[in-house]
């Protein structure tokens, strides 16, 4: 193995299978079955992936930089990620999002009501579609379409003025279900790694912005009194 890997990675880090080609390109696969190539030049770090350039510009990585090199390398290659990062979307995930969907309401762009998705056969089909979208990064063109419904902002506003209305887009139910599944994946991962700061309350479950608004109002009022 090339020294630019052995000097950075411990034996615990190198628990995957691969080989080093003659042009110093490490070809390996992690435990999730993903194949990648990582180019390096032995003792000469002229050709590197951009995050490594600053760390290795002076040659061998410094001891205090090795941990950061390993972390960046894992992010680039997907090494060490748990099963939740690449697991398929299950029927349970789709069903949990479907349970939170509001029944009734207006028909959407595709004319399919939310009640129809609660059929077990269609639930399996939509889960397969979600997995195709999740793995390929592509979604149906129909999901980019929606019905714009104008909602009056006030009963006293001028009905002939377009600015008196707030546009609400009625997206297809399948699109909203897919967004709900992605949101559950992101929420789980961000909470697991404790990524969000304590001050981030908006768009988070069981977090309220009332205290933030109260603090901001107090600061504004205090500033007015001082002036």
UniProtKB/TrEMBL annotation:
CDD domains in alphabetical order: CLECT (cd00037)
Designated name of the protein: C-type lectin domain-containing protein
InterPro entries: C-type_lectin-like/link_sf, CTDL_fold
Chain segments annotated as coiled-coil in the UniProt record: none
PANTHER family: REVERSE TRANSCRIPTASES
């Amino acid at each position: 193995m090339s020294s630019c890997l052995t000097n950075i990675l411990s034996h615990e880090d190198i628990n995957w299978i691969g080989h080093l080609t003659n042009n110093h390109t490490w070809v390996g696969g992690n435990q999730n079955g993903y194949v990648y190539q990582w180019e390096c030049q032995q003792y000469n770090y002229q050709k590197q992936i951009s995050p490594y350039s600053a760390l290795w510009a002076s040659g061998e990585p410094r001891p205090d930089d090795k941990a950061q090199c390993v972390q960046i390398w894992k992010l680039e290659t997907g090494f060490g990620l748990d099963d939740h990062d690449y697991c398929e979307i299950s029927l349970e995930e789709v069903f949990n999002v479907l349970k939170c969907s509001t029944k009734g309401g207006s028909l959407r762009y595709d004319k399919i009501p939310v009640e129809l998705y609660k059929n077990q056969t269609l639930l399996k089909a939509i889960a397969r579609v979600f997995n195709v979208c999740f793995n390929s990064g592509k979604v149906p063109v129909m999901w980019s379409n929606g019905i714009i419904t104008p909602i009056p902002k006030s009963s006293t506003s001028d009905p002939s003025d377009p600015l008196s209305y707030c546009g609400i887009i009625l997206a297809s139910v399948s699109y909203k279900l897919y967004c709900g599944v992605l949101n559950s994946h992101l929420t789980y991962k961000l909470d697991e790694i404790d990524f969000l700061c304590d001050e981030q309350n908006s768009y988070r479950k069981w977090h309220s912005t009332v205290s933030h608004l109260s603090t901001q109002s107090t600061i504004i009022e205090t500033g007015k009194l001082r002036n």
